[in-house]
Amino acid sequence: MKHLVFSVGLVVLAFGVAILAQAQTKSVERELIKLENEWADAWVKSDIAFFDRIEADDYTWMAPEGFVMTKADDLALLKSGRSVITSWVLADMKVRVYGDAAVVTGRCTTKETYKGEDVSGQFQWTDTWVKRAGRWQCVAGHTSRIAQKQDIS
């Protein structure tokens, strides 16, 4: 009888741990989606303080054109006013959590001018997040322009 009670207890404990882990993952997913949306808003508002907080000091971003930007480059761009973003809409976000690391993917549609030239478009992106000192920071990102359908007939 003791073995049966012990076995049942272990099963209940295992299910409890699994349910707790799933709840924590859902919480992280919600938090990162919220941060991604706030980041999109920060682009529109040129919120330098938000960028300084959300991007890790070793942050790198691969641009659709193939060049690499750092956190310092992002902050300098925001301060310069060369890029004016009037809309940044996110869609189809998916979060995969790996303990204190996570990968977020999605699409965005932007309305932007860079040095007066329209660079608006639709993009797919990937952001890699790490939890450091109790808060999530983005350490890397990659963005690709979504190709427009072409009539090849």
Q: What's the helix and strand layout?
A:
Elements lengths: L1 H44 L2 H7 E8 L5 E3 H10 L2 E16 L2 E14 L2 E2 L2 E12 L2 E11 L8
Parallel strand pairs: 1-7
Antiparallel strand pairs: 1-2, 3-4, 4-5, 4-6, 6-7
Short description:
The protein is α+β, with helices and mostly antiparallel strands and 153 residues long.
Describe this structure in words.
The protein has one domain: Nuclear Transport Factor 2, Chain: A (Roll), CATH 3.10.450.50. Strands 1, 2, 3, 4, 5, 6 and 7 form a 7-stranded mixed beta sheet that branches. Strand 6 and strand 7 (135-145) form a beta hairpin. The protein has 3 helices and 7 strands; from the N terminus they run ααββαβββββ. With 153 residues, it is α+β, with helices and mostly antiparallel strands. The longest helix is centred in the first third of the chain and has 44 residues, at 2-45. The protein has helices at 2-45, 48-54, 71-80; strands at 55-62, 68-70, 83-98, 101-114, 117-118, 121-132, 135-145.
